[in-house]
Structure formats: C-alpha cells, structure tokens
Amino acid sequence: MKNYKQIIARFAEPGIEQTEGFNDLLWQLICYSPRIPVRLQQEQLLAEAVKFTLPVMDEFFTGTELLFNGFIWGSGKRKILITHGWGSKAADFTDIITRLKGLNDMQIIAFDAPGNGSSEGGLSNLLLDIEAIKAVVGTYGEPDVVIGHSLGGMANVIALSELQIVPKLLVSLTPLVRLKENFEATMTAFGVSKAKQAGFMDEFEDRFRDRASMFNLLDRYGFGADLNHWLAYDVNDQISPYTYMETFLQANPSIQNKNYEGVGHDKILRSPELIDDLEAVITSVLSK
After folding, report:
1. pTM of this prediction?
2. Which residue among 61, 133, 211, 219 has its CA within the 20 to 30 Å range from the CA of 205?
3. Summary mean pLDDT of the chain
C-alpha cells in the first residue's frame, strides 16, 4: 500500500505532466495494484486452506514467469473457482468462502492474481488474470461454478470463452463492463489531460497489440442462453457504472440479475443479502 500512496502523491506535484517520467508514472497509476494487508479473520481462513503456487508468463511487462499463490478449501467433487478484482485478493472473499465451504461435497479454489495480494509481480493487468485462471483450470480441472468480482468478472468471461468452457453457473459480482472507460475515469480523477490520456491509450495499443476499447464485456461475451449466468450489481456503483451494465444486460437478456442498491462496488462481497442469495443460487443449480 505504501508504493501506491507514493504513486498517488506524485500526481499532486506541480507540473508533473511535463516531467520526463510522466508516462511511466501513468502506467503505474493504471497497472499497479495496491496490496492491502490481510485482516485477522482473513488470516484464519487462509490458514485452513491447502496452498499451491503456479507460474504464468508476464509477456507485456517483465517478459519473465511470475509465480502466483492459490488456496483450496475442501476436497469435494463439486468445484467452485473464485477470481478477485483489481487491488484485491482471494482473502477478500472471506465471508463468501466461509459460507460456501459449508456446502456439501464442495471444493473451493481461489488465488491471488500476479501483482496482487501475496503473489509475485509489480505491474499487473487483465491478461495476467486470464492466464492465471487458465493455469488453475489446467491444473485442477473444469469448475462447476465460477465466481468473479469486478475485473475478475471480465477475466472469467474472457478465459472461459477462450477455454470453450461452459460451467453449470457463472456468477459476476459488480463486473467491469468497459476497461477503457475505467482507465479514463481514473486518469481524469487525477487531473490527467486529454492529450496525455490519448498518449497512454496509444502506448497501450502498442504494448498489448490491441486497443483498450476491445476489452469490454459487450464485445467479448460469446455465451447465450446455454450458460446459467447470475449477475449482481449496485445501480449506484461508481466504479462499474450502471449505464454500461444496463446496456450489457439488455444485449444479453438470458442473464439473471439483481440490484443490491447501496452496497457499493466492493462491500457487495460482505453483503449478508448477497451471500444468502448466492448460496441459494449455487445450491439450486448444483442440486439439479
């Protein structure tokens, strides 16, 4: 968290946009994921888990393999895979995992994506999340249920599409819908000029060989009514705005969805109402 605060502080410096290293600073603003220490309850949950470590290739930043850490609760035949969001970690699902691991014949797998939580990496990105999902599935098998929050919701959709896997249930909790617009909102909040924002987008396309605008659920969602998809959102969410969510849901009417107004983008993971509903949906789907 200290590094992230230092990055933020730099944007308050007079004339920072005119400095030679400003573009590098922009990459840190967008791609450095703050690491928030685990709390006691989270530590206790992680202590119960079987730990694993897997490698992924960081093609776009370091050009080296990064090791990321994962956690498994239970050894049942019914498998749940959980993908966290930006600036988050597996332990942030403590309330949800605590509830779900009490279900019958269950195995729950969660991980800290590269550059997040306890895993290796400095700058992170969506593609590292996607590769981590693929590595977990390749090692532990196809999940029955896949849960993702925020950026993890987008990563799940893309990874499952590329793997050509249709789980029994996909759960998306306040998923990001448009990555480019999220970048722009972050840069605008820190007073970055439109010219510098455009320059960053050009550098993004050069580095990733694709436009940031292509990373959105509308274009990358290839599922139909054959996928049982349950989505939770907050109509007042400022990080994943409802205007984007509404367009996505209208384009995909088979997705079951519910508004948890007032819980916010992150606190939805600790919402008792959401956790009750999530348990009910999973139990219903897996009982069929």
Report:
1. 0.97
2. 133
3. 96
Give the residue range(s) of CATH 3.40.50.1820 domains in the chain: 40-177+220-286
Q: What is the maximal distance between C-alpha atoms in the chain?
A: 61
Per-residue confidence at 34, pLDDT binned at 50, 70, 90?
very high
Per-residue pLDDT band at 2 (split at 50, 70, 90):
confident
Residue 1 scores a pLDDT above 70? no
- Beta strands at 145-149 and 169-173: parallel, antiparallel or unpaired: parallel
User: What's the pLDDT at 3?
Assistant: 85
Distance CA 45, CA 68 (A): 18
| Exposure string for 158-182, b = 16+ CB within 10 A, e = fewer | bbbeeeebebbbbbbbbbbbbbebb
* Res. 27: pLDDT tops 70: yes
Give the tens place of pLDDT for each residue, 70-109. Answer: 999 999 999 999 999 999 999 999 999 999 999 999 999 9
**Token pair recorded at residue 229:** 């998809």
Backbone phi, then psi, for 44, in 5-degree steps?
A: -65, -40
66 forms bridges with which residues in the sheet? 56
CA dihedral 278, 258, 154, 160 (to 10 degrees): 60
